[in-house]
Automatic annotation (TrEMBL):
GO biological process, one term: carbohydrate metabolic process
InterPro entries, A to Z: GH, Glyco_hydro_17, Glyco_hydro_17_plant, X8
A cellular component term, taken from the record's GO annotations: extracellular region
Origin species: Medicago truncatula
Stated name of the protein: glucan endo-1,3-beta-D-glucosidase
Family per similarity comment: Belongs to the glycosyl hydrolase 17 family.
Gene name per UniProt: 11421546
Broad class of the protein's primary localization: secreted
GO molecular function, one term: glucan endo-1,3-beta-D-glucosidase activity
C-alpha cells in the first residue's frame, strides 16, 4: 500500500479538529484557585464555565460548594488533598477512607470527579519527611477508592514543578533529579499500574524571565520564530511549551516509562506585574494563552508526542488578590471576578468560530472580512522564518512548492503571503494569528491571482 498523500493527511487532521469542536474541548482545562476575598459564588462560576469551551476544572482542595455546583455539567473535576493532609493519609488507611467518603462519594458521579492530586510540588518542597510520606498517602487513597469500586474511574497522582528535572535542554536530554530517584521509581511504577497521569507545571513565562531576549519571548509566546533544533535528535521546536513537555517525556522514557500520560496541571501568563518584573502584560498573556489554545486545538501535539493534545489546565480562572509574592502572582486570571473576560482568547461558546474547512487550500468563507499578508519592508529572512513557522504547524504548504498553484512568482514574499494567510484562516482568524512578530497586517483586498486562491474573504 502506498503511503497517504499530504492532502489526505491534512484532510484527516482537519476532520479530527472538526470533531473536537462538537462539544467542550476536553483537553482545555482551567485552574480554579481560591486565594481571594472577592470571588463570585460557585454557582455563578459554574454558569460561566458552561458558557465556555473549557472541559475541565482543577481545584486545589475539595471545596464541597464548588464540587456540587458543577454537578451534571459534564465538566471534568480534579480535586486535591493538600500537602498538610499527607501525614495523616500516609499513616492511617482509615483517614484515606474518610477523605474519600467526605470528598468524593457524596458527589460522584453527578459531579464528574476524574482525578485526585495528592500534594502539590512535594518532591521539591525540601521537606524530606513529607517526601517519604507521599507514596504511602497515594497508595492509601488508591486503596480507599478501590474499596468503593471507583478504582480506575477516579485516578490518583501528585503534581510536580519543572524543578523535578535535573536536565531539560535540549528536550531529548530531559532527565529527573537523581536525588529523587527512589521516590520517582515508586511513583512511576504506581502510575503505570493504575494508568494514572504524570502531572507537571511548565511555565514558559518563568523561562522567559530567566532569559529575557526578544527571540526567547517569541519562542515562549508561540509566535513566528526560526525555532530551536534539538541537538540530540534533530527535531525542530517552535515553542517553549512543547520543549518543556517533551523534556518531561524524555525523562520518563529514560526510566522506561514513556507510555505514562503527561498532563499539564498548570501553565499560564500574567497580565500585569510589578515594575521590576519582565514579561507580564495583557498583550503577552493574551498571546500565550490564545496561541496555546490554538496549538492544542490543532491536535498537532509535540515533536515527541505527535497527533494528540496534552491535557492542559491554564492558570488561572480568576485573579487571586490574596496571593503572596510579586504582583504577577495576583494577575493570572482569564476572567475578572465580575465574570467579564480579562481578555478574549476565543473560549466563549457564543463566539466560537466554525472549525477549519476540510479543503487543503480553500477553507470555508469566514464571517469577517480580511486576508493576512506581510507588511511592506519586511526582510526576506523574517518572511522565511514566517514560512518555516507556519508550515511547521500542520497547514498545507504544497501550493508554494514547485508545480503548485502558488509557486509562481517564486519569491519569498509571495510564498510568505500565501502561507501566513492560510495559517491565519486555519487557526481561528484571531488578530494575534495575523501578527507574526509584527510583520503582518490584515487587508480587505483579495490577494488571489490566476489559479492561486487565497483562503478568506467575507460572506
Amino acid at each position: 500500500m502506498s503511503p497517504p498523500t499530504p492532502s489526505f493527511l491534512l484532510f484527516f487532521s482537519l476532520f479530527a479538529i472538526a470533531l473536537s469542536f462538537a462539544d467542550s474541548q476536553s483537553f482545555v482545562g482551567v485552574n480554579y484557585g481560591q486565594t481571594a476575598d472577592n470571588l463570585p459564588p460557585p454557582e455563578a462560576t459554574a454558569k460561566l464555565l458552561q458558557s465556555t469551551t473549557i472541559g475541565k476544572v482543577r481545584i486545589y482542595g475539595a471545596d464541597p460548594a464548588i464540587i456540587k455546583s458543577l454537578a451534571n455539567s459534564g465538566i471534568g473535576i480534579v480535586i486535591g488533598a493538600a500537602n498538610n493532609d499527607i501525614p495523616s493519609l500516609a499513616s492511617d488507611p482509615n483517614a484515606a477512607t474518610q477523605w474519600i467518603n467526605t470528598n468524593v462519594l457524596p458527589y460522584y458521579p453527578a459531579s464528574n470527579i476524574t482525578l485526585i492530586t495528592v500534594g502539590n510540588e512535594v518532591l521539591n518542597s525540601g521537606d524530606e519527611g513529607l517526601v517519604s510520606q507521599l507514596m504511602p498517602a497515594i497508595r492509601n487513597v488508591q486503596t480507599a477508592l478501590s474499596s468503593v469500586k471507583l478504582g480506575g474511574k477516579v485516578k490518583v497522582t501528585t503534581v510536580h514543578s519543572m524543578a523535578v528535572l535535573a536536565q531539560s535542554d535540549p528536550p531529548s536530554s530531559g532527565s529527573f533529579n537523581p536525588a529523587l530517584r527512589n521516590t520517582l521509581n515508586q511513583l512511576l511504577a504506581f502510575l503505570k499500574d493504575n494508568k494514572s497521569p504524570f502531572t507537571v507545571n511548565p511555565y514558559p513565562f518563568f523561562a522567559y524571565q530567566s532569559d529575557p531576549r526578544p527571540e526567547t519571548l517569541t519562542f515562549c509566546l508561540f509566535q513566528p520564530n526560526s525555532g530551536r533544533v534539538d541537538s540530540g535528535n534533530g527535531k525542530l521546536y517552535t515553542n517553549m511549551f512543547d520543549a518543556q513537555v517533551d523534556a518531561v517525556h524524555s525523562a520518563l522514557s529514560a526510566m522506561s516509562y514513556e507510555d505514562i500520560e503527561i498532563v499539564v496541571a498548570e501553565t499560564g501568563w500574567p497580565s500585569s506585574g510589578d515594575n521590576n518584573e519582565v514579561g507580564p502584560s495583557v498583550e503577552n498573556a493574551k498571546a500565550y494563552n490564545g496561541n496555546l489554545i490554538t496549538h492544542l486545538r490543532s491536535l498537532v501535539g509535540t515533536p515527541l508526542i505527535p497527533g494528540k493534545s496534552v491535557d492542559t489546565y491554564i492558570f488561572a480562572l480568576y485573579d487571586e488578590d490574596l496571593k503572596p509574592g510579586p504582583g504577577s502572582e495576583r494577575a493570572f486570571g482569564l476572567f475578572k471576578t465580575d465574570l467579564s473576560m480579562s481578555y478574549d482568547i476565543g473560549l466563549a461558546k457564543s463566539s466560537q468560530q466554525n472549525p477549519p474547512s476540510t479543503s487543503p487550500v480553500t477553507p470555508a468563507p469566514i464571517t469577517s472580512a480580511g486576508w493576512c499578508v506581510p507588511k511592506a519592508g519586511v526582510s526576506d529572512a523574517q518572511l522565511q522564518n514566517n514560512i518555516d513557522y507556519a508550515c511547521s504547524q500542520g497547514i498545507d504548504c504544497g501550493p508554494i512548492l514547485p508545480g503548485g498553484a502558488c509557486f509562481e512568482p517564486n519569491t519569498v514574499a509571495s510564498h510568505a503571503a500565501f502561507v501566513m494567510n492560510l495559517y491565519y484562516q486555519t487557526f481561528g482568524r484571531n488578530q494575534w494569528n495575523c501578527d507574526f512578530t509584527q510583520t503582518a497586517k490584515l487587508t480587505s483586498q483579495n490577494p488571489s491571482y490566476n489559479a492561486c486562491n487565497y483562503a478568506g474573504g467575507s460572506t
